[in-house]
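User: I'll paste a sequence; please echo it back and then give the predicted structure.

Assistant: Echoing your sequence first, then the prediction.
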Amino acid sequence: MADPSEFETELAIVRRGGRRRVIIALACVVVLAVIGGVLITALGPADKRPEEVHTASTLNIREKPAPRPVSEPAGKPAEERPRDVKGTPPVNVAKPAEKKTAEDRPPVKKTTVPPGMEHDFGFVEPEAKREVVLAIPNPSPRRVSILKVRTGCPCVKAAALSGWFAPEEPLAVRLTFVAPKKPQQYAKRLYVETDDPERRLSWVLVKADVGLPLATDPRSLDFGNVRPGTTKPATVTILNRGKKAVRLLYSTSSLRGCVLTVPSHPIPPGGEFALLVALSAASAGPKTATFDIATDAPTQQSFRVTVKFQVPPSDPGI
């Protein structure tokens, strides 16, 4: 009968040999897997391999020559063509722009603005409001519409009274004027734009004497001929359009020999006074005398009167 201890010894030896075989087999598998991965990485799939770049030199193909520079149009001698340093014609040589004279330029069509009309409000107190309906001449043979009404000052507001006007019917425009605070001789334009191709633009000159009560009647004074060496008497009518009496203090003249006499009493509101003027001149020719009159009006402390006259040549036989 075998000894049990010997049996156990043999069994232990068998177990150790089995373990060694398993370890060796696993090691072989790992080594084979590593070798296979290295080979796959080195070779790679066929579609992912880098493509070979073939140039004209590798394929033994002759390259096309570079295109020649564009020459001047046919018909021009080669010696007249501009050339560069190497003697070859340059590519697309830009010619300097020729300066055109006034005779070479096409005529510019000018739009002529027709003569406008004028509306004078006369004397207006500062910040006072005035309204009027203007009838602007319309010579057009067709129906006309007002496209736009423009003013040169916020003091003036205007609007057309109708959307369209019949042929040759005056353009009716309502005008509202609010006088500025500062006394002045006001003059601004009102522009009326229409769809008439022959007369696109018309204008109206809006005038007013804001806070200036004194004026002459008429505004333009021309006393005709004054014989040389003589004195011609004349009268100038001064109007007071304000609400208070105005006193004229004194006057000065720009032309020697011409004198304007001021009254000693004030001009009442809404009244007028005829001032005496003495005109004389020694030399012949057209003359203009300017008289500056000092007043006690707070908004018009100075008032100017301009008088024109003509001095004819003296007759040598007299």
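The longest strand covers residues 285-297. Residues 46-63, 72-79, 105-114 have pLDDT under 50 and may be disordered.
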